[in-house]
Design a protein that fits this description.
Elements lengths: L4 H4 L9 H15 L4 H17 L5 H7 L10 H14 L2 H13 L5 H17 L2 H18 L4 H11 L10 H10 L3 H7 L1 H22 L9 H10 L1 H4 L1 H10 L5 H19 L8 H31 L2 H12 L3 H18 L2 H18 L4 H14 L8 H10 L3 H24 L2 H8 L4
Length: about 450
Amino acid sequence: MPLPLRAIIPHEREYYVEPSLLLVLLLFGLLVLRVPVAVSLALSAFATLFFYEGGSVIQLIAQRMYPVTRSWVLLAIPFFMLAGTIMEMGGLTRRIVNFSNALVGFLPGGLAAVTVVASMIFGGVSGSSSAETSALGSILIPAMKEQRYAPRFAAALVASSACIGMIIPPSIPMVLWSFVSGESLGKLFMAGLIPGILIGLIQIGICVVIAQKRGYGIRRPFSTAELGRTAGDGLLTLITPLIIIGGIVFGFFTPTEAAIIAVFYSLFLSMVVYKELRLCDLPAVCLKAGTTSAMVLFIVAGSSLFSYALTVMEVPALLTAKLLVFGSTPLSFILITGILYIILGMIMDISVIILLTGPILAPLIARVGLDPIQTAMIYMVILAVGLVTPPVGMDLFVASGISGLPIEEIAKECVVFVFGMLLVAAIIWFVPATALWLPARVNF
């Protein structure tokens, strides 16, 4: 059984600040020393609890860290990551790019628009923006360089468009939000579809304007024959998002089951239909997907112990009281928490942010008169900004590794795309139907 609150930290008021301050200082100290995030979370929590209570808290490690990783909802994470890895290594990603090129390659800066469309399609399968950046960046960044795009713009576009992967269903951050908030994962997935498409359309518009202004790209004539050929070649790949989303909408399977189906369907296409993935390649596929999945689930486990330490120090209660004072109206609440998420997104991984703040914010959303699904979508879009803002923007690091450019150069080019994403967050606020129309029409 978990240790009672009184057994760990006494209730005298003078202890409310000291343990929590030590906890935060330890966490940031470990992060500055480049200790892995999951280890930093678990170690700072354990050290603080051990300092105030002693060896009796050792049992908390197993009690708090292991059970959370057995969640049925979280099981979707490794399967969606595995599906994305199979697509990348099995030739499916290339077919998505070819189709996108035939569809929008005629626009000014056509290859830039292709990048956005390919991100939207790929995001409908993998749910991971970092996997999307890696898969599409390795193909499109060199291709854009050949068409006289500035390397920094090419890298920034790939990183920014990959953010759509955490908005368009399926979405691993939405899996985590469902886990900490108790909201229906199916409704969250449906709510992300229209905002994700809006972000994609805005990014295409930005690409067209920038390409015309800077003279980027080589325009190609639209060809119905080419569109038909690439659609035929990649048809089975292109309908993968429809199978996943349609199956969830019509109740054929749950989001977690959809992740498993995505894996087997991607395997079937890669090994049987296109025959570009061999049996001997599977260990490398599983190792790559397993490494990334383990990293996320280890963060989940570490944040569970860290959240428990915060709880026994009554930090959530104090934060709740402050938020209800300063954010007593829906607009003030969303502004305060939105700004908080923008700041946290610059210094912390999205998974950590959701796992640490979700349990505190989720119960308050309804209390201040906000719709939980609409608010979750606003948070998802705002958190997506953190993927392309230094110093911790994950997509920036992946794009930097592919392009060989410093993240500072790439981040400057990402600014215009960041404003585009924040515009979509504002649209969700002022037009709630953008997030609520689809979930209202589907029974989960």
